[in-house]
Protein: G-protein coupled receptors family 1 profile domain-containing protein
Amino acid sequence: MPGPSLGNGFILLKLNLNISDLLILLIHALGKLGWLITYEWKGGECLCRIFNFLSMFTLYLSSNIVICIALDRLTTVLNAQKLNMGQQKIWTKYVIRNSSSN
Structure:
């Protein structure tokens, strides 16, 4: 069984974003299309409240997943910079040690 990869978390976030976008298309867009075709709500008050909740939920879900992707990319960049700075410190110590021994 292969070990965890660095890209697995990012792939999972992209998959979740695709699912949330699909939910927006199915819930929000189709509901608005039905509204534009009929110009009235025929589902009653309870269904109207459920539709409005699901519509807003899908929009907030998508926004939060985009924020999670941005934070994941930020931590990846910061960790790469820390790794690079650590390698530079090792290289600097190596150069100083070798230059002082001469």
